[in-house]
Amino acid sequence: MTAQGIEDGNILQRISSKYRYLAPALRQIADLILGDPEECQTMTITQLAAAAGVAESSVSRFVREFGLVGYQDLRLRVAEAVFQSRSKGGEAGDQQVVYEGITRDDDIATIIAKIERSSQHAVRQTAARVDVDALTRAVDLIDRADSVIFCCMGSSAIAAENGVMRFMRAGKKCIFFRDQSGQIMAATNATERDVVIGISDSGHTTVVAQVLRLASEHGAATIALTSNENSPVCAHADVVLYTSSSAIGGGLYGESVTSKWGQILIVDMLYAAFAARNADAALAHLEETYTAAIQHTRS
């Protein structure tokens, strides 16, 4: 590749434009870098390879693919692209990112590719962060509980309502109030026979942290779903399950939809593990609730 070719656009733009032509392993690296360039610029080659789920040799191939002189050159160019993006954002404001990596100049095909890429990365990174022992302990708590109480705010309700529908159909009583006062009352009335699942991507949602604290004080088991280690919601959780940490959300752009893929994935894992453990009872409840629903829709 010529020096001129190297300079045509910053490295993030070049990775994005060449993405569809990359080999699968190189796409995984591209997903990671495009999904969270600020984090990637600080990683060693070993850390980047592990986070992308590829061998270090694949990272070296990726570097050569873009005509760079070594891994440190890649880190430098990513850092330059991040700085350039910040600088332009300060100067041009609304001409830069309008939603989760999408700019006003992106065409429809680019928007589709970016959304797909960020969603895939969120799912892949969440799966990589799941601790088997922690997930097993969470399923133990759900299995022993008489009822599962969900707590969250905003669009995290997507994951909570998915959990309610899954577990209710399998015979586990669930409670979820969208109103924060209802959530606080549910936590206050929780007992050692209940488990409370608090969902907060940032880990700083005040009502979620408060609900987990109240539930814990009343003897209930507590589970936190968050992307943020050592955040307030973790302080009162018996088990913490981590989602993707690279989603952009809050502030000007509103809540991250990408982050919800990780939350839904964790809830599905909890349900699948619970249903597999209680297969006979779960299948019986699934059949019963399905029959009841069909009869209701036909009446």
Automatic annotation (TrEMBL):
Asked if Transferase is a keyword of the record, the answer is: no
**Which residues does the UniProt record annotate as the domain SIS?**
138-280
* InterPro entries attached to this UniProt entry: Homeodomain-like_sf, HTH_RpiR, RpiR-like, RpiR-like_SIS, SIS_dom, SIS_dom_sf, WH-like_DNA-bd_sf
One Pfam family linked to the record:
SIS
User: What positions does the domain HTH rpiR-type occupy?
Assistant: 9-85
Q: Which UniProt keywords apply?
A: DNA-binding, Transcription, Transcription regulation
Q: Which SUPFAM superfamilies match?
A: Homeodomain-like (SSF46689), SIS domain (SSF53697)
* UniProt record, GO biological process: carbohydrate derivative metabolic process
User: One MF term in GO for this entry?
Assistant: carbohydrate derivative binding
Q: What is this protein called?
A: RpiR family transcriptional regulator
Taxonomic source organism: Actinomadura rubrobrunea
